TrEMBL record:
Single annotated GO MF: cis-regulatory region sequence-specific DNA binding
Protein name: F-box protein
The F-box domain, residue ranges: 64-110
Domain JmjC: 265-424
Domain of life: Eukaryota
GO cellular component: nucleus
Biological classification of the source: Eukaryota, Fungi, Dikarya, Ascomycota, Pezizomycotina
Source species of the chain: Tolypocladium capitatum
SMART domains per the UniProt record, alphabetical: FBOX (SM00256), JmjC (SM00558)
Entries under PANTHER family matching the protein: ARGININE DEMETHYLASE AND LYSYL-HYDROXYLASE JMJD (PTHR12480), JMJC DOMAIN-CONTAINING PROTEIN 8 (PTHR12480:SF21)
Stretch list, region Disordered: 1-42, 472-507
Bias-annotated ranges (Acidic residues): 498-507
Amino acid sequence: MPSAMASIPGRQDASLANGVGGSHEPNAVEASASRPSSIPSHPLGVKPLGNRYLSAGPNARASVGSWAFLPDEMLAVVLEHVDKSDLLSLGATCKFLYAFCHPDELWKSLFLELPKERGQSLRWQGSWRRTVLALPKEREANVDCSNVFSDVLHRPFACTNIDLAQFVTNIPKANQMRRLDNLTYEQYAERWTEQPFVLTNCIQDWPVRSQWTMDRLLQDYGDVEFRAEAVDWRFARYRSYMRENRDESPLYLFDRKFAEKMEIKVGREADAAYWRPDCFGPDLFEVLGEERPAHRWLIVGPERSGSTFHKDPNGTSAWNAVIQGAKYWIMFPPTAQVPGVYVSRDSSEVTSPLSIAEWLLAFHGEARRLPECVEGICSAGEILHVPSGWWHLVVNTESGVALTQNFVPLSPKLNLLSEVLLFLRDKPDQVSGFARDIGNPYELFTERLRREYPEVLARALDLADRKSGRKRKWDTAVGRGDEEGATGFSFGFGGGDGDGDGDGEIA
Ligand SMILES: O=C(O)CCC(=O)C(=O)O
Ligand SMILES: [Fe+2]
């Protein structure tokens, strides 16, 4: 366990110079940010660069010999290309290189390069380095690197240890997400399809609410393999990882085949584990049957795990139900420009070169001051609605379990169906989640809708045409080509101009 941070004034100042030292919010909104956000000592004693100027003692960098010509940033990049034995040898030459050969990110990459069976056979030892080296914690050398001063080494450690409370508490009143008891489908369809909200009394009857404690999951599914980003791990191993890891962005279990793997039933059958809440009404993607794109996921993660800013796939809406734990959500409507999130001209690429912690440290204050910002906590037993096209960043404030499902709602104005149709029709390169052999998801969807909902389809296509027609007129007026028109400005999208379903209204 790292000891409490010694209050060296330069430590925080040095970090601040690199944008990771603390909150920059000057106003009352961030009252909690005025609490000292203390960062524990680095396990090797490494200090932020600024501390070098306050230290009268030796500087480990002086001993690196010919490596000295490489700045820290470049040294770190070079070491990404070094294999396990060279990393160990190099790390044994001096304390500075020991510290640089130690970061868990390097060892995580080495782990991921191992043949699958080799990786599977290694016990999780609390860090990637110890796991790759099959080194129990007690046997790991305890090297004092307190004369190593480096932001490159200290920054990820500081991000791993941020105090989330300063970001997820004191939500300004104007930003607070609506919290409702429950909704009927009529209420949802009339007024709520384009608003984020939390329902506090909607999933109470789901059997998984009482059944899926972490201990029960471990007991019943410890040997079942789930997908966690780049790895397929047995739940027992993932649970060990959750309990002890040092990752700035912890591996997130996100599995879409969970129902099959856990052999549970989903739906209104007698012995189902959970079902789709009635309030969201029909899901128009159900017309696709087995050919619908991936649509439901089990999500498990430790505190600080989560999802960086994104919009959900194919223009779909989603619900996200927290079974254990709690999640902080920060959301923006479809056309907002989210601080620190850069979208390519055709929206096909989103660059946010940041972990959740880095985004929170650098941009949360600015984001929170934007009028479109919506924030909320969804706790165990609650379910949150993500409207189509909304940007969202999510972070687990405690370790937890959640279920999510993406869907296409049916509402009187058909705005969101038209959004999905436009997405499938106009952004085929961005369509995701369909099986590879489905060549034209737009045609498949319209063909199925024509069979089951012919009138709905006709009206939605008409709306889609009107939207793209209006967009074209706008683009001509401002002298932009088709491709550019599909970017940031979206005329008539997202309910902001009266096309939407009750934008801003309250049930
Ligand atoms: O629970 C989370 O991390 C959010 C998941 C999410 O946004 C998604 O599945 O699209
Ligand atoms: Fe999402």
